[in-house]
Amino acid sequence: MQRVAVGTGPLTEADVVAVARDGAGVELTPDAVAAIAASRRVVEALADDVEPHYGISTGFGALATKHIPTEQRALLQRSLIRSHAAGSGPEVEREVVRALMLLRLSTLATGRTGVRPGTAATLAALLDAGITPVVHEYGSLGCSGDLAPLSHVALALLGEGIVRDAEGTAHPAADALAAAGIEPVVLAEKEGLALVNGTDGMLGQLLLACHDLDLLLRTADLTAAMSVEALLGTARVFAADLQSLRPQPGQAVAAANMRALLADSRIVASHAGPDCVYVQDAYSMRCAPQVAGAARDTLAHARLVAGYELAAAVDNPVVTADGRVESNGNFHGAPVGYVLDFLAIPAADVASMSERRTDRMLDVARSRGLPPFLAADPGVDSGHMIAQYTQAALVSELKRLAVPASVDSIPSSAMQEDHVSMGWSAARKLRRSVDALTRVLAIELLTAARALDLRAPLTPGPGTGAVVAALRETVPAPGHDRFLAPEIEAAVELVRSGRAVTAAETALGAAVG
After folding, report:
1. Helix (H, G, I), strand (E, B), or coil: what is residue 118?
2. 382-387: long-range contacts at Cβ-Cβ below 8 A with a sequence spacing of 24 or more?
3. Which domain holds residue 415?
4. In 85-190, which ranges are continuous DSSP H helix?
5. Closest Cα partner for 349 from 217, 497, 249, 231?
6. Tens digit of pLDDT for each residue in 397-419?
């Protein structure tokens, strides 16, 4: 089994995907264990101090002014976790919970939180054993961290609450820990707070979305190229010298992809001469690199922010390098919330352009010779008419999801927490956006493949032709109307798995960037 080392340095996006999605194990490095132990000594030195220290000898939030006697401090930490494990609604996906567990472990490993090494080791043991606490959809305001989601994870460390084992079966946490040989944690001073005061849930979802959108934007170049071919569009507008007149980096990448995919296309060559009557293509074809390129640049910015967050130690209070224990505001989720919202905008716009190309292929007045709705017997057959309806419904949903969550704030904790980020909500809707974009692109791919087959005997380029061939392994060639939903799902899987892009890359002998 692959293992990811968690040390005092930052993790990578690939590390998070490996643990969250692929089930990789984790191990704390010796430097992390030493850093954790050093900060714990600072906390223990303050435990008996007559001066109050937030999170060690005081209550939390608006109750921070209450001094907690020594004999009640273990109860204080346990009570914090139990009361804050107040999530509601559907279960959050396993990969999201594993991502937030890993990222919380990463912050513990920085030696800035004051937990004991054994507490961090227990969190690592849960990840290794594939034990995933049940976390619920609602409960985080994205400030003071993802409190409710992380509290449900911390509750499992105590042997309480409900978890799922590696096979996905639900068990009481005490039973699952016992079966895995993991001893529940009895929390000491500061530890409860250190386990829940982080932006790990929203960051984990940002990293997973970045990983997925990277693939989807490469897929968008692919489906756009297939549609340009199917609609007898020109490849001349994607020329490098034209694109360089507007030196946006993402645009250059997208245009280069489309040039490669349309190279050696007999369909494109068939109307490339001076007698071609099609003077200009519609914006959804001609401007594809500009839109997909801007989406790439937005993704690059989001990854920059995610990189800063991966290098962060988000907790309150923190143990500083010189041994102070200080309150701070680093738990505020605004930096992550903003880019989560930002990414939902290009996801909606790339999908909108994809749907417009699909509609154009189905409209006999604009499809340049294709049959109405690509139907075998128009009138008797409806072809892909309703597939476009499904696409339109998805695009409409994407537009609603592009409305930002991070502009909202509802004060909480008796006005102590009077401005919150709503970053968790931004993360949840971005996950829906990523799924919807996947489906929109899949329907364009399915439709464009059918249109390309109908252009026979002319043949598409090697890259786009390889994608059609990959689709035909599970979806038959054009014919009379069939049950269409399974064919759409086959195309969705071709896109989501990356097999569509891989097919094109194999045929081209080069990466689709």
Report:
1. helix
2. 382/481, 383/450, 383/481, 384/358, 384/443, 384/446, 384/447, 384/450, 384/484, 386/484, 387/358, 387/443, 387/446, 387/447, 387/484, 387/488
3. 205-313+343-508
4. 94-109, 117-129, 147-157, 173-179
5. 217
6. 999 999 999 998 888 877 777 78
Single out the residue in 163, 198, 233 at which a domain terminates.
198
Environment class of 319 (CB within 10 Å of its CB; exposed 0-12, middle 13-18, buried 19+)? buried
For the chain, the straight-line distance linking the first and the last C-alpha, in angstroms and rounded, comes to 29
- At residue 341, does pLDDT exceed 90? yes
Handedness of CA 410, 413, 414, 419 (dihedral sign): negative
What does the block give as tokens for 267?
């369909």
Q: How far apart are CA 102 and CA 207, in angstroms?
A: 12
Residue range 32-46, pLDDT digits in tens = 999 999 999 998 888
pLDDT tens digit sequence for 76-132: 889 989 999 999 999 999 999 999 999 999 999 999 999 999 999 999 999 999 999
Q: Is 54 a catalytic residue?
A: yes
- The closest of 190, 132, 123, 180 to 157, measured between CA atoms, is 123
Q: Which amino acid does the sequence have at 471?
A: L
Domain end: 170, 198, 226, which one? 198
Are the C-beta atoms of residues 40 and 110 closer than 8 Å to each other?
no
Give dist(CA 469, CA 392) in Å, integer.
Answer: 26
121 residue type, one letter: A
Residues in contact with 411: Cβ distance below 8 Å, sequence separation at least 6, in sequence order = 417, 418, 419, 420
What is the average pLDDT across 431-442?
A: 98
- For residues 500 and 219, the answer to whether their CB atoms sit within 8 Å is yes
CA distance 505 to 512: 6
Angle 30-46/94-109 helices, nearest 10 degrees?
70
Residue 269 neighbours by CB distance under 10 Å: 13
Residue 438 sits in a domain whose CATH number is 1.20.200.10
Catalytic residue among 54, 278, 283, 308: 54
Q: Which of 402, 398, 384 is nearest to 342 (CA)?
A: 402
Angle of helix 13-20 relative to helix 200-230, nearest 10 degrees? 100
Domain count along the chain: 2
